[in-house]
Specification:
By secondary structure, this protein is α/β, with parallel strands linked by helices. The chain has 18 helices and 13 strands.
Length: 421
């Protein structure tokens, strides 16, 4: 695999024109401008995050970025709390699910005037810009695109004579066939489960992808809440059944978050995992050619719905160093940084120049991401969506999995929350 050379010719050639402008704007008589940047990452000890920031600092001597990792469970509320007391970072990574809420609170600096003068704007795919656009105002710089698919154990499928499931019924049958006792390579008898269901934090995305692939809708074409339907209840019950009735998930699924479901897949406890390219490097390092990738299963009518989540970089509206801040977040969306991020930290390239590189065209995991793009639907851009997906649904799904509420009650409660303004 081609390795990046920090401070090498590629970095110099790809970023020098933009650096010259950004650095001249950021110069002060007291040394470099310091930009405080917040982000959340699943593996904060991954040295590649530090390498990315180090490359920017080394090639931008008039700007110094200080990076802080914030635990994912706290990140959204920490942003809001810090802003309300006049503190917090200059720049930060943000889910597209938060943009409407943050914009309504005036937390975000509008970026249209900066972007209009930025040479790299035409290299970014048109499809990712709307992720942080509210009422025709651009509030974020696209950084990475994460398109969901499913990982599966190719070796186990071959041993059991199983084909890749194309729809949900086939998915359940395959998951049941792969659940039970099995002998690992050392001869030890272990428990294996067909699917690593994520019932803890971050469970909402998986659930909503399932029910929307089933055919249920959150809103109708006029923007009215349309979730409280028999179809949504049926889809929800089918999802709960994976844990309650079919028992194709680990017993710990109710509380399992990101690290638990990925760890279970890597260690050979589960046979299928729903995630995205962000874990490609980690999973293939652990399993090599034993792991394959497939589309999320279609619903009963053959319909598929996939998540295409864009992580953006925003600038705080109260930052005192907005020009330097934009120099940093725009560099993170340029060729060198996008290629480094996509190769070593895991995401689908957001720029045409990087997506066209042979490494990404010929890699089956990136190819499956691109195939999944055709099924991507937008997440709501409502002010309360962030709390619905980050808090309300997390609690409701856990209660439903444990049998404390029914599928009908869960759907009704979600519908009520979606209707709040």
């Amino acid at each position: 695999m081609k390795r990046f050379m920090l401070l090498g010719a590629l970095a110099a050639l790809s970023i020098m024109p933009v650096c010259a402008k950004g650095e001249s704007e950021a110069k002060t008589g007291n040394g470099p401008v310091t930009i405080h940047h917040w982000y959340w990452v699943p593996n904060a000890d991954n040295e590649n995050y530090s390498k990315l920031i180090a490359e920017f600092n080394a090639t931008h001597p008039n700007i110094k970025v200080e990076w802080e990792n914030v635990p994912q469970k706290d990140v959204r509320t920490k942003f809001i709390t810090a802003y309300q007391v006049g503190e917090g970072p200059d720049t930060f990574g943000m889910s597209e699910n938060w943009v409407a809420e943050f914009a309504a609170m005036n937390m975000l600096e509008p970026l249209d005037s900066y972007i209009s003068k930025w040479p790299g704007k035409n290299d970014i795919f048109d499809k990712v810009w709307p992720s942080s656009k509210i009422q025709n105002v651009q509030y974020g710089m696209p950084w990475k695109l994460l398109v969901t698919y499913m990982y599966y154990r190719k070796d186990w499928f071959k041993e059991e004579g199983l084909s890749v499931p194309q729809n949900m019924d086939e998915f359940v049958k395959v998951a049941k066939a792969l659940t039970g006792k099995y002998k690992d390579e050392s001869g030890q008898i272990l428990d294996r489960y067909g699917f690593g269901l994520r019932g803890g934090r971050g469970n909402a995305q998986c659930y909503y992808i399932w029910v929307q692939s089933y055919g249920a809708k959150l809103y109708d074409d006029k923007g009215n809440v349309a979730f409280n339907t028999p179809l949504a209840v049926e889809a929800t019950q089918k999802y709960l059944d994976l844990y309650q009735k079919e028992k194709v998930t680990p017993p710990s699924a109710v509380g399992d978050g990101f690290s638990e479901v990925v760890g279970a897949f890597k260690s050979g406890r589960t046979a299928m995992l729903h995630h995205h390219i962000g874990t490609y490097v980690e999973i293939t390092q652990a399993l090599g050619d034993k792991v394959g990738v497939m589309l999320f299963p279609a619903g009963p009518t053959g319909y598929r719905w996939s998540e295409g989540s864009v992580i953006n970089h925003g600038i705080s509206s109260i930052s005192k160093n907005k020009e330097a801040a934009f120099t940093f977040i725009s560099w993170m969306s340029e060729k060198w940084a996008v290629e480094f991020q996509s190769r070593y930290l895991g995401s689908v390239p957001i720029t045409k120049s990087v997506a066209d590189l042979p490494y990404f065209r010929d890699n089956p995991f990136y190819a499956k991401s691109n195939e999944s793009v055709k099924y991507v639907g937008p997440w709501p851009k409502t002010i309360n969506w962030a709390s619905v997906i980050d808090s309300t649904t997390v609690k409701l799904l856990q209660q439903a999995l444990m049998g404390q509420i029914t599928a009908q009650q869960m759907v009704e409660s979600i519908s009520a929350e979606l209707a709040k303004k």
